[in-house]
Design brief:
Elements: H1 5-13, H2 22-32, E1 36-39, H3 55-67, H4 80-88, E2 94-99, H5 105-111, E3 117-122, H6 125-138, E4 143-145, H7 149-153, E5 159-163, H8 172-180, E6 186-195, E7 202-207, E8 215-221, H9 222-230, E9 234-241, H10 250-256, E10 261-269
Parallel strand pairs: 2-3, 2-5, 3-4, 5-6, 6-8
Antiparallel strand pairs: 1-7, 6-10, 7-8, 9-10
Helix pairs in contact: 1-10
C-alpha cells in the first residue's frame, strides 16, 4: 500500500479522509511513514495537542527512573544534565523552568545528578493540577508548579527549557518576548522542526504520527527563529540534530521543496 507522495499529500489534506475507517488511516500512516502534512493555515487551532496526564502516568515514570539512573527523558538532549552541572557547579541553587514539561521525567533525571536544582514545572492547566497533587502525595523536594505566564514572570530563572513544545504554541512570539524580558541566562529549545530554503517564517503542519490523536504545529524557518531569539540580546551557542530524530519528512520536503531537520538550539544571554 505504498502510494505516491503527491497522492498522500492531497488525501491527508482533504476532508474525504474523515470518511475512512481509523484502521485504514492507521495502516496508511504506518506503511507510508507519514509524520507531517503541510496545510493552508496561518496559525494553530485553539484546541490543539490534547495531552492529559494521570497520577498513574507519573507513578510509572517515577518507577522507571528509580530503576534506571541512565534513562534519558523524552525529547531530551542526552548531555543536558552534564551541561547544567558544568554551568551551575559553583552555585548553591539555580532555577530551571521546564516549559511544556508533560511528564516530570526531567525532574527525576536531574534530581540525583543536579542536587542544586530548583525545578519548576509548567504545562496545560489540567496537567499542572495532576503534577501538583503528585508532588504533595510523594512529598517531592525542590520542585514546584507554575500555572500561567504571570506566575512565571514573578520568578527569576537561570535556565528555561522548551522540550519539543515551542512549535505547538500559537502565540510563540509573545511567549519568547515575555520570557526573554525576564533575562534568563540560558534558553534551550529541544526537538524543534525547521526548514531552511524558503522565504516565509513559518508553515503550519498537521501531525499524524500519533494517530488517532492529531496535532497541529509550526515548522520554523531556521534563520527566522534564530534571529528572533538573538534580537532579544541572546547568542546562539550551538545547534545540533536532536538525538531522538527518526522523523520521515519526505512528504513535507517534496511539498515545500526543502530539507527539514529536527534540531536542538542552545542560547546564552550576551554579557
Amino acid at each position: 500500500m505504498k502510494l505516491s507522495n503527491n497522492f498522500l499529500n492531497n488525501l491527508f489534506k482533504s476532508k474525504f479522509l474523515n470518511y475512512f475507517p481509523k484502521r485504514i488511516i492507521r495502516l496508511l500512516i504506518k506503511k507510508n511513514k507519514i509524520f507531517f502534512i503541510k496545510i493552508d493555515l496561518k496559525g494553530l487551532p485553539k484546541i490543539n495537542y490534547p495531552f492529559l496526564l494521570s497520577l498513574k502516568d507519573l507513578e510509572e515514570k517515577k518507577e522507571i527512573f528509580s530503576k534506571n539512573e541512565f534513562k534519558i527523558p523524552t525529547n531530551e538532549f542526552p548531555y543536558l544534565g552534564l551541561i547544567l552541572k558544568l554551568i551551575f557547579q559553583n552555585k548553591d541553587k539555580f532555577k530551571f523552568l521546564d516549559f511544556g514539561a508533560q511528564y516530570i521525567d526531567n525532574y527525576f533525571f536531574f534530581k540525583n545528578k543536579n542536587n542544586n536544582i530548583n525545578y519548576v514545572y509548567h504545562d496545560l492547566i489540567e496537567n499542572n493540577k495532576v503534577v501538583e497533587e503528585f508532588i504533595n502525595i510523594n512529598e517531592l523536594k525542590n520542585i514546584e508548579v507554575v500555572y500561567n505566564l504571570n506566575e512565571i514572570k514573578k520568578n527569576k530563572f537561570d535556565f528555561i527549557y522548551f522540550g519539543s513544545v515551542i512549535q505547538y504554541v500559537n502565540e510563540y512570539q509573545n511567549l519568547i518576548n515575555e520570557l526573554t524580558a525576564q533575562k534568563p541566562k540560558y534558553l534551550y529549545f529541544s526537538g524543534v522542526n525547521f526548514f531552511f530554503k524558503n522565504n516565509y517564517n513559518t508553515i503550519v503542519c498537521k501531525q499524524f504520527n500519533v494517530f488517532p490523536q492529531i496535532n497541529y504545529c509550526y515548522f520554523f524557518n531556521f534563520d527566522y527563529l534564530k534571529n528572533l531569539v538573538c534580537s532579544k540580546n541572546y547568542e546562539l551557542v550551538y545547534f545540533s540534530e536532536n538525538s531522538n530524530s527518526k522523523i520521515n519528512y519526505s512528504l513535507l520536503n517534496e511539498s515545500i521543496d526543502d530539507n527539514c531537520k529536527y534540531l536542538d538550539l542552545f542560547f546564552k544571554i550576551k554579557d
